[in-house]
Amino acid sequence: MPQEIEIEFKNLLTEAEFLKLYEVFNMKSVPEIQQVNHYFETKDFQLKQHGTALRIREKNGKYQSTLKQPQGEGLLETHDFLTEQEANSWLQGYITLGPEISKQLQEMGISTAELIYGGSLETVRRELSYNDTIIVLDRSKYSNVTDYELELEAQSYAHGEHVFSSILTENGITKRKTPNKIQRFYDSLRNR
């Protein structure tokens, strides 16, 4: 069961800011990555109450379930690879978790039986290495919404924060409070 600590910084962008960064970092030469996130939650949002999120990511014909939990300055991500058939079973309400994700949910008092499929979010992503970090530009579509986002992944919080702040400042971009994709997805459902 692979686990990793993810340290990332996020900022929602206007379309104009997105296009500016696209040019600044010459993203047209970077291959597109198409991915679909399928989100799972309980009816009463128990995962959200723990600051936790559960998804299946569909990318390049592969499926991976991920549980994200707060840990220090980052997120602890626990992954399981799924077959296409297993992923489709999840989408139909037949959720079978790997042992580590199951154990962590049990520790939070959340039963697999309470999990339901919430919906999906489609992202076109481009990423590149920059100053010992990874810059990610995402265009996401969900619930009749299109949003644009800058993400920066780093090995240390201090270095990542410095590089991220420099990018925003150098490009005249306002730092915005940016909920993660799963929260934006569920917020869009409430605003319908």
Put the structure in a nutshell.
With 192 residues, the chain is of the alpha+beta class. The chain has helices at residues 15-24, 46-49, 84-91, 99-107, 157-170, 181-190; strands at residues 3-13, 33-42, 53-59, 62-71, 74-82, 115-130, 133-142, 145-154.
Write up this protein.
With 192 residues, the protein is of the alpha+beta class. The radius of gyration is 17 Å and the shape is globular. The longest helix has 14 residues. β6 and β7 form a beta hairpin. The protein is built from 6 helices and 8 strands. Strands 1-5-4-3-2-6-7-8 form an 8-stranded antiparallel barrel, surrounded by 4 helices. The termini are far apart. The relative contact order is 0.22. The mean pLDDT is 94.
